Structures are given as C-alpha cells and as structure tokens.
Amino acid sequence: MTKRLVQGNEAVLLGAVKAGATFFAGYPISPSSEILAQASVYAASHPEFRFLQEEDEIASANAILGGSLAGAKSFTATSGPGFSLMQEAIGYGHKVGIPCVIVNVMRVGPGTGMPTMPGQGDLNQTRYGSTGDYTSIVFYPSSVTECYEYTIHAFNAAEESRSPVIILSDAFLGHLNEVADLEPIEIPIVPRTLEPLASGGTRLFSGVATYADGEPATADSDEFIRQYYEGRDHRLAVADKYAFYEYGWNKDAETLVIAFGITRRIAQPLAAHFALFRPIRIWPTLDKELTEIAGRYKKIIVIEGSDGQYANVVERMLLRRVKRVPLLGGRMSIEAIREGLAHIGMLPKELASSGSESAAGSRAAQTDVSSVVG
Q1: Which of 33, 62, 290, 362 could disulfide-link 28, Cβ–Cβ 3.0 to 4.6 Å?
Q2: Strands 23-26 and 74-78, how do they pair?
Q3: Distant-in-sequence, close-in-space partners of 277: CB < 8 Å, separation ≥ 6
C-alpha cells in the first residue's frame, strides 16, 4: 500500500493511464492545466504515451478523435470556454462513433467568467452542447479517489459505447489534495476493439448521413431514423451498466437533498438532518433510481453550483416541484448553503448557529463510498 497526497487533476491522469490511454492532446486553461502539464511530464519518460499541445481546443478535440481512429485510447482536458469550442468535434464523434474521453474541470461562466473559481454550470452543455440529438454519458466524481476511478469507468464506457464520454470536475475538486492509495483499486479494463485506420479494407468516417456503402443518405429520413435509434439504444444499454449514485445520510429524514460533485462534500454538515441522493452518472439521468428513492420524501432540495440546471432536470424527471439552493459566483461553502436553506425556510434549527456545524464539518473531507451504488 502506498498512501500519498494526490491532487484531483493528477488522479484523472493516473486513471487515464491505468485505463490504457496512450494519447493526450490539449491546450492549457485554468483550472484544468495540471492534467496537461502532468501528461507532458509522463510522456517524457514513457515513449509509448504520446503528448501533443495544440494551438487551441478545437484542434485538441479533433486530434483525439484522429488519435482514437488511429488506434490509441485518447483524451483531452479543458474548462468551460474550451469545452464550448469542442462542441462540433464532440458531435462528429457521436455521429461517427469514436471512443474518447473529455475532461471538463468547470469554472464560473459564461464567457471567460471567473477562471479560478468553481462552478457547475456546464451540465446542460455536456448533454446539449453540440447540434442534433445524441446520447451523452457523463460522470461527476466528488473525491480524489473517485477522480481516478471514474476516469477509468469513462474510458471503459467510451470503448463500449463507441462515443465521446465526459468526466466533469471543478476548480475545487481538480485542485483538491487528499491522501489516497490508488494502487489497490481494481477496475477491469475494457480493451480497444475498434480496428485502427490502415488496418485493411475501406471504411468511411463521415459526419454526413450515409448508407453503409458510403453513398450519401442526406434525403433518406427512414435510414437516418434507423441509424439514430440503433446508436441511441446501444449507448443507453451501455450507460445502464454505469448507473452510479450515492444514497445515504439520514435516510429517515423527511427531506431529500440532491447534491453532486464537490457540492456534496461541502454539504456534508447537513448529514444528520437530511437524506442524500448524489448522482455520479449525470447523463443519462438516473430516472429509475431517483424516482424510487424520491418517493419516500415529503420535500426535495437541490443544492448545485448553477442557477437550477439540475433542479430543472429533477422536476421534469419526478413531475414535482423541488426547493433550490443555487451556489453562484464560485461561492461554494457551507455558509452559502446555510444562507440558501434559510432563504427557502429549510434551515434546521441546529444549524442556525455556526458553532453547531464544527463537529460535522470535520467529517466533510470523507466520502462514504460504502453507500455508492453502481
């Protein structure tokens, strides 16, 4: 056993290497740059691992698509503005069926926003950012160890679904240092089965709707619909294998808190007063799992680092209203959560004084992995 301090961004790189990644292409952007920097250091001493710093995020996303088609498990890392630039390439990856992993270490947006402050405002973009209909698989860990684990799962899901898979993080989680022992973690690795380019035969990788023989099908609605549902159903079936979530805290409470990523960690002092549902697979949504659990509770509160992006999803999923505690402008803290709960009339009396949270707050750095399901 080798316990040491590991940073969240470093754990992502280590998970990618463990999953068999051999190509990284990226462009530096806060707060994800450590992944790029450490990938370059790793490549310098591991010639089988190729590294390319591109001129921008558009080139980075297209480079990993090409690297994947050439036979390498490939990935990139970015943040909100860079992720915006990658959307056309992401859509192409879904259309053609290219496995790869994209890491989005979120910060406050829109635009350049607040580059060093944490946010969770890119959830909708991971699902709807590119043009048309497609099925995104998205994971959001909440600890350094989970950054390692779910990066491996992301590569596995990408190989099985033949699609770009997204790992979400944020400025706090990416820069969080925790004592971790990653060596004993055993997650089966899904091998590459997609034959690389130049391996024989003729294949077409076109963003245009085509028939199997490569002829354009741009006026054949029936063929488009057939291909779309075939791809969607396959990716949903793969996603079902990765239905990760956490259900815990005080399950006998009357109110269920929904929080994810770093927000779940910050909200830990609430544990004695509320039940918790933490979606780890953000997309596709965990409809069956959350519907079954939410039915046990009179009220639901969604605490998130955006103005209701996930709360809106939950309301559509459950067909009921939820309370909202948005943590905006990078103000992710237990104080902000407490103020938000007070604003909606849901602050427990025991938490009304700051002193009462100290004991619970000391446990905030611990994630109860025993309650994680998947």
Answers
A1: 33
A2: parallel
A3: 245, 246, 247, 256, 257, 258, 290, 293, 294
DSSP 8-state class, residue 268: G
How far is the C-alpha of 316 from the C-alpha of 167, rounded, in Å?
24
b/e per residue 36-51 (b: at least 16 CB within 10 A)? bbbbeebbeeeeebbb
Q: Which CATH number fits domain 4-196+235-239: 3.40.50.970, 3.90.79.10, 3.40.1130.10, 3.10.20.310?
A: 3.40.50.970
User: Model confidence over 350-360: pLDDT tens digits?
Assistant: 888 754 444 44
* 328-364 per-position pLDDT tens digit: 999 999 999 999 999 999 999 888 875 444 444 434 4
Task: Provide the CATH number for the domain formed by 246-373 in this structure.
Answer: 3.40.50.920
Surface-to-core class of residue 67, CB atoms within 10 Å of its CB (0-12 exposed, 13-18 middle, 19+ buried) = buried
